[in-house]
Amino acid sequence: MAIKEGRTQERCTGMILPVSDAIQILSGKWKLPILISLQFGNKRFSEIAKNIPKITDRMLSKELRELEMNQLIKRTVYDTVPVTVEYSMTEYGESLDPVILELAKWGRQHRKRIMSKDRSAAKY
């Protein structure tokens, strides 16, 4: 098997750990959808829940805590009656914007590719 130019064993090994770290932080069904929701502006808990069909309040709460722990989002509590809590992307979280845009681009292309294969396979 030919190895593409510039792709060495050392570079391979050097990529595995950081990619594994990124996947661990962003893994699961809900973290990326939550981040995408917050890319479109600050939101309260219920607004995020409305953006993401089928997520339970318990799961949303858990995922928000983990994203906050990893400094990707910020939770702001306002001194109002009743208390208002708002979630927003941190500057560090916004550094994921190009990654999310590329994932969306790849996902659209993949969906188009697979759907066209499904249609052509259905003809036989």
Automatic annotation (TrEMBL):
HTH hxlR-type domain span: 12-115
Gene3D superfamilies: Winged helix-like DNA-binding domain superfamily/Winged helix DNA-binding domain (1.10.10.10)
Keyword Ubl conjugation listed: no
Keyword Transit peptide: no
Stretches that traverse the bilayer: none
Keywords of the record: DNA-binding, Transcription, Transcription regulation
InterPro entries in alphabetical order: HTH_HxlR, WH-like_DNA-bd_sf, WH_DNA-bd_sf
Top-level lineage group: Bacteria
GO molecular function: DNA binding
Name the record gives this protein: HxlR family transcriptional regulator
